[in-house]
Amino acid sequence: MNKRVSPEQIAEGIRSGNRRFIAKGITLLESLLPADKDNAEKLLELILPYTGNALRLGITGVPGVGKSTFIENFGLHAIEQGRKVAVLAIDPSSARGGGSILGDKTRMVHLATDPAAYIRPTPSGSMSGGVAFATREAIFVCEAAGFDLIIVETVGVGQSDVLVDSMTDCFMALMLPGAGDELQGIKRGIMEMGDIFVVNKADGERMQQARIAKMQIQQGVHLMSPKRTWWAAQTLLCSALEKQGIEEIYTLCMEFYCTASENNALQAKRREQALLWMESYIRNHLITAFFENENVQQHITAITADVQAHRISPMAAGRKMLSIYLTDRA
Amino acid sequence: MNKRVSPEQIAEGIRSGNRRFIAKGITLLESLLPADKDNAEKLLELILPYTGNALRLGITGVPGVGKSTFIENFGLHAIEQGRKVAVLAIDPSSARGGGSILGDKTRMVHLATDPAAYIRPTPSGSMSGGVAFATREAIFVCEAAGFDLIIVETVGVGQSDVLVDSMTDCFMALMLPGAGDELQGIKRGIMEMGDIFVVNKADGERMQQARIAKMQIQQGVHLMSPKRTWWAAQTLLCSALEKQGIEEIYTLCMEFYCTASENNALQAKRREQALLWMESYIRNHLITAFFENENVQQHITAITADVQAHRISPMAAGRKMLSIYLTDRA
Fold it and tell me: What DSSP state is assigned to residue A125?
């Protein structure tokens, strides 16, 4: 495919469901190259009218909870029900580590090869490598391409759950049975955010443990003040491996979607999310404009060295850099 | 105390260890009133030369882990060893909730009334109430006042652990025994960040469970790549209530401090933190200047309504607001 493709051509390709254009579109929206910025915004404006018709489902769960197997079988079931399914990922990697913890492209082989599914592999390497996590934008691309169930998965490290919640309608948390598993990590944030809890690996000898886990989760949920007036978080058992419980969970998701629409809650949440998006757009542009400013770039290395050598306080250094920036702009 | 006190007078009061001036200084640094900004920066510059001599210890732990009791007895032991102890808190409250989850001023009564201790109560209400979390600045105030062990506590929800780690030298995580306690929340982030792990409530019938928890934590730590080349995270047992294990933990903290100094790691970490501080100062000022701009304030309500009514995309709205801002500034 020619590298010089216009935003209009990419938008058209996305609308026709062409996978190469979907990938090309997301790549453009993820690009941090200044030269790509205008085209990226143009593309987004072109596809926005065709977005908003999917159920956006966030799924979180620690490594080992069986997330890939669950998403694969959940996605295949949704496809049987007539849905077109896209899977995106927010991979916070490790604050220190670097590597992806979501695994590679070889997971979910059945779903990946289904014509009604699209799986976006996680960007390889870290954000500093010239690629931003443009998950919100990727959701829009998939919706414009006709996918009507968008799954956004994360491992729930740091703020990634909050991020996922800020761009999805329904938040599902996968949990492990086994009271002894302290690495489970049911944190207050998850208990508060979850709309649907799924205890996975509820099979064979783990069945009893799974039932206990379900009870504990429900108790934990009840300790929290309810997130929504029109929906009480529910906990279901599942064995993704044995394909048990998938149908029930899918039905519950659809119930959530219907209830949310009927209560106007879906629309309200998305309106809130649109404002958050506007704010983050403004923030990012203000900060980018600062650090890309020529005068700033000319002085930042010396100031950084001064701060590290204690010749100037961080605050005074910040003030100095701001005044260099503002003088240049005036 | 007269309300019109100069930054110089406050700095002097802080240096003399006067508690009312310490409180007044922190309040000034937390103020979001534009009128206070210059005085706040002036105060910070005045006290900065007298900072940096304390051990800055971050402590995290879920509600119920016994953090207040631990900090009280740990602090009292440190005072016996000749230290002056200040306790600050980063309270992320709840993303939705609002109320403080760290409890009120009545906790740690013995430590609170000790002349060698200072406990800063958490700001009541939410950040939007005109008070920012100025924990970093509060650390400096306490150091300038002569406190040489600064404890920064948090409940570890969302990013607050990362925040605490970005302003302290040593990171201690309090854990609960009891394999059945899935609300424990040992998440990958904590396992990676912790320098010292303490299994609290290791007493009576819980002793066996505490030993198992200690083993599990050590296993979890070993799964992570080591955070530092010169320090391996250690796990100790403790019963804060029965004052068992406190001395050993204090000794380990001091060992950490010595090793970090000898390896120049303490200085290196603080240099990094100074740069982060400069960056966050710049970010905050760029964003504040935008939202305080008269032209921006004049247009933001209408644009917000347009975004919510889908008359304009969030991105186009952001672009429009930025151009309003930049036109005004030019």
Answer: S
In whole angstroms, what is the distance from residue A83 CA to residue B24 CA? 60
What residue has token string 């987004």?
A44
Residues 6+ apart with CB under 8 A from A204: none
* Bridge-based pairing state of the strands A55-60 and B234-237: unpaired
Interchain proximity A41–B315, CB inside 8 Å: yes
- Residue (of A95, A72, A98) closest to A153 by Cα position: A72
Say which residue, B98 or A301, is predicted with more confidence: A301
Q: Report the alpha-carbon distance of residue B86 to residue B56 in Å, rounded.
A: 10
Which element (helix H / strand E) includes B58? strand B55-60
Closest among A30, A29, A32, A39 to A5, alpha carbons compared:
A39
CA dist A145 and B274 (Å) reads 46
Whether A184 shows a pLDDT value over 60: the answer reads: no
The answer to whether B121 and B26 are in contact (CB under 8 A) is: no
Closest CA to B7 of B17, B27, B19: B27
Tens of pLDDT, residues B245-277:
999 999 999 999 999 999 999 999 999 999 998
Which residue bears the tokens 């005068």? A295
C-beta separation of A280 from A288 below 8 A = no
Q: What tokens were used for A229?
A: 């007036």
Region A133-155: mean pLDDT is 91
Most confident of A33-37, B226-230, B293-297: B293-297
Determine the distance in angstroms separating the CA of B108 from the nearest CA of chain A, rounded to an integer.
24
Most confident of A87-96, A174-183, A232-241: A232-241
Q: Which of A29, A40, A28, A41 is nearest to A1 (CA)?
A: A28
No. of helices (H) and no. of strands (E), chain B: 13, 7
* Nearest residue, CB atoms, B216 vs list A182, A308, A315: A182
Torsion of CA B235, B237, B241, B246, to 10 degrees: -70
Q: Kindly state the average pLDDT of the residues B141-155.
A: 94
Largest CA distance in chain A: 71
- The answer to whether B173 and B283 have CB atoms below 8 angstroms apart is no
Query: Which amino acid, one-letter code, is at A35?
Result: A
pLDDT of residue A86: 96
In whole angstroms, what is the distance from residue B44 CA to residue A315 CA?
9
Distance CA B164, CA B26 (A): 17
Note whether A98 and A126 are within 8 A (CB): yes
| Rounded CA separation A179/A209 (Å) | 7
Residue A82 falls in which region: left (phi positive, over 0), alpha (psi -120 to 50) or beta:
left
| Confidence band for A159, pLDDT divided at 50, 70 and 90 | low
Task: Give A-chain residues touching B95 at CB under 8 angstroms.
Answer: 162, 189, 192
**Mean pLDDT (whole number) for A307-317:** 88
Q: What type of residue is A284? A: N
* Cβ-Cβ contacts under 8 Å, B271 against chain A: 307-308
Q: Residue A259: what pLDDT?
A: 95
Tell me the C-alpha distance between A150 and A58, whole Å.
Answer: 8
In A, which residues are within 8 Å of B307 by CB distance?
A: 271, 274-275, 278
| Dihedral sign computed on CA atoms, order A100, A102, A108, A111 | negative
